[in-house]
Amino acid sequence: MVRGLGGGIDLAEFSAGVESMADDAREKGDREHPLADEAALSARFKRLGEELGHIQPARPAESSPDQPAASDPSAMARGFRLSSELVAGVGVGAALGWIIDRWLGISPWGMIVFLLLGFAAGVLNVMRAAGVVPSGPLDPKQ
């Protein structure tokens, strides 16, 4: 017996008249056997699985030795290096622009110009590090 605002309700008496959704999907006398719709649906799923098995061959093992791993640590390191090249270029340009603005009193022009120059230098450094653009003649690595 559960007591609420309006008095007590007997849960056994209340749940005796409630039917579940599964009762609606099946006939009352046929609860143990699936309906024809469910059997047809499971047969369609089985046929689809067989057709996909014929069309798409079995995938190779995920950890085969001849294939590189999905998350290659060297690729992540390269990505961090390229992103830090760009951020460093923009940061150095902004810092130089701010210093020149303070020193010469030409605010905000030094910041704008050197921020754009820093962005261009960062993009150029990223392209050089990625191997898209050859290194310049002053590069000591040559």
Give keywords:
elongated, two-stranded antiparallel ribbon, mainly alpha, 5 helices, 142 residues
Describe the structure.
This protein has 5 helices and 2 strands; from the N terminus they run ββααααα. With 142 residues, the chain is mainly α. A two-stranded antiparallel ribbon has the order 1-2. Strand 1 and strand 2 (8-9) form a beta hairpin. The termini are far apart. The relative contact order is 0.06.
Briefly characterize the structure.
The chain is mainly α and 142 residues long.
Q: Strand content of the residues, in percent?
A: under 5%
Order of helices and strands: EEHHHHH
The secondary-structure class comes to mainly alpha
- The Rg value, from CA coordinates, equals 35 Å
Mean pLDDT: 76
Order of strands, widest sheet: 1-2
Biggest sheet details = 2 strands, antiparallel
Number-wise, the strands total 2
Shape: elongated
In whole angstroms, how far apart are the ends?
A: 88 Å
Number of helices in the DSSP assignment: 5
Q: Give unreliable regions as ranges.
A: none
* Fraction of residues in H or I helices: 55-70%
Topology record:
Elements: E1 2-3, E2 8-9, H1 11-16, H2 21-25, H3 36-55, H4 73-104, H5 109-130
Antiparallel strand pairs: 1-2
Helix pairs in contact: 4-5
